[in-house]
Amino acid sequence: MFPINLDLTRLSVALVGNGQPTLNRLQQLDGDGAKYVTVYSEDPIPELARQAGDRLHRYLPNSADVNAASIMFIVDLGEEKSAELAAIAKAVGTISNVEDVKEYCDFFSPARVQRGDLMITVSTNGHSPRLAGRIRRAIDKWLEPNWSDRLTALSAEREKWKANGANMQQLLEKTDEYIDRRGWLP
């Protein structure tokens, strides 16, 4: 597996499903600032229809719809429909995730803790989402809210160092010194 963070303000997302898990994923995508989300649902729960608004298509996506998406999330559809959509995605080159069905996934959504732009993710590569979630909760308790402010301050210092001509090695050393002086990490 190769970990990456995707900028969903720039990529088109297809979300396919009908129930509460689909609504949960849509709320997460919306909360993360995804701009180009299309929801496909044959029988959406009322809350999903409300949240999706004019982004909702009341049918399952065809190959052209899947091809138009950069990334596709398939949630709570059942194995047969999920397998069919995952195969279409593979055929047209759209990366896809079938929630909790590892063999159909091109990627996995990690459990995460976020403080502003600081994001820590935990993944088991689909082997145990529950374990990843429990580790995430432990990190969430440890990672104080002020880490967002710490990152903002460190980023400002780093920009000053770069403006003053620091090379990569110097940036690394100055960053370590900054963190160590403040006792942020053991």
From TrEMBL:
InterPro entries: Met8-like (IPR028161), Sirohaem_synthase_central (IPR028281), Sirohaem_synthase_N (IPR006367)
Pathway connected to this protein: Porphyrin-containing compound metabolism; siroheme biosynthesis; sirohydrochlorin from precorrin-2: step 1/1
Recorded GO MF terms: ferrochelatase activity; precorrin-2 dehydrogenase activity
Keywords linked to the UniProt accession: NAD, Oxidoreductase, Porphyrin biosynthesis
KW Nucleotide-binding (keyword) present: no
Pfam family, one: NAD_binding_7
SUPFAM superfamilies assigned: Siroheme synthase middle domains-like
Chain ranges of the Siroheme synthase central domain: 115-140
Residue spans crossing the bilayer: none
Domain of life according to the entry: Bacteria
E.C. designation(s): 1.3.1.76
Gene Ontology terms describing biological process: siroheme biosynthetic process
Protein name: precorrin-2 dehydrogenase
Lineage start: Bacteria, Pseudomonadati, Pseudomonadota, Alphaproteobacteria, Rhodospirillales
